[in-house]
Amino acid sequence: MPNPLFLTTAVEAVVRAGDMQMAQFGRQLQVDKKGVIDLVTEVDVAVERMFRALIAERFPDHHILAEELGGAAAAPDGACWVFDPLDGTTNYAHGLPIFCASLALEIDGVAEIAAIYDPNRRELFTAERGGGAFLNGAPLRTSDARVLIDAMLVTGFPYDVHTRVNEVVGLFGAFVGQARAVRRLGSAAIDLCWVAAGRMDGFWEGDLKAWDIAAGGLIVAEAGGRVTGTDGAPFASRAGHVLASNGYVHDEMLRVIRDFRAQSSR
Predict the structure, then answer these.
(1) What is the spatial distance between Cα 141 and Cα 111, in angstroms, rounded to a whole number?
(2) Sheet (strand 181-184) strand order
(3) By Cβ atoms counted within 10 A, which residue in 21, 63, 103, 235 is the most buried?
(4) Contact of 151 with 183, CB cutoff 8 Å
């Protein structure tokens, strides 16, 4: 069993992050660009500095990988905290209330603890490997939609979408033609939590970082869902792509992706 202080620390970190996010939300912010459409705010950096100080104090021998200040890009041996201080920065910068803080503790590259906090809805999603997933303390279960035509899916677009419109929107369109509905919310961590909670039936996205999906992947799996790469390979947070579902529609989603890629390569 993991040290109980690990989950306590994860919860404390993401809730403190949410408080910091809300304190500045809707105000005039310093917003900089990491890429053409990839934004970073002063809040992203302040939250990450808070988190790094917390871990340095409690677990000085642990590794950290976080979005703004980097860290262990390859999964190290031992403990590594994988943190996104503000997932949904573009939403946040535009005043759209869909964002969160996302944190996983990986041991030897495998997520053992996860906590994601959505401060707008005051929803705290947590999971421990083998111990289930929870929303504000209540157990989570994925949905029971059995086929894609009864499923509501969610996805995200990469920051280089301008150079890959046909590929990204083409796959989106392929799913639109097969599912009941497809959404695009702007926060991969919330997308994954909502699959775990049964609000969405499946999520796919590529070109992601470990901090986007490490925590959410564990939460979906512990809620009874299935999590792989978009190619069907075993899920790895640093692989950069994920397909998460209630399990029932997983193979159908893999087929849509496979068929689209085969057609696009002709």
Answers:
(1) 19
(2) 181-184, 152-155, 202-205, 242-245, 226-228
(3) 103
(4) no
Helix (H) or strand (E) holding 250: helix 250-264
Q: How many C-beta atoms surround the C-beta of residue 96 within 10 A?
A: 15
Residues 6+ apart with CB under 8 A from 104: 10, 81, 82, 83, 111, 113, 114, 214, 215, 218, 237
Contacts of 89 (CB under 8 A, 6+ apart): 39, 40, 41, 44, 99
Query: What is the distance between the alpha carbons of residues 2 and 54, in angstroms, rounded to a whole number?
Result: 18
> Can you list the positions of beta strands (E) in the chain?
31-33, 39-41, 63-66, 70-71, 79-87, 100-107, 110-118, 123-128, 132-135, 138-139, 152-155, 181-184, 202-205, 226-228, 242-245
- Residue 249 tokens read as 């529609």
pTM: 0.95
Is residue 142 within 8 Å of 223, Cβ to Cβ? yes
* Helix (H/G/I), strand (E/B), else coil: 69: coil
Q: Across-strand partners of 244?
A: 203, 227
The answer to whether 214 and 180 have CB atoms below 8 angstroms apart is: no
Closest-CA residue to 55 (of 6, 124, 100)? 6
Spatial CA neighbour of 79 closest among 100, 58, 101: 58
pLDDT surpasses 90 at 219: yes
Question: What amino acid occupies position 161?
Answer: V
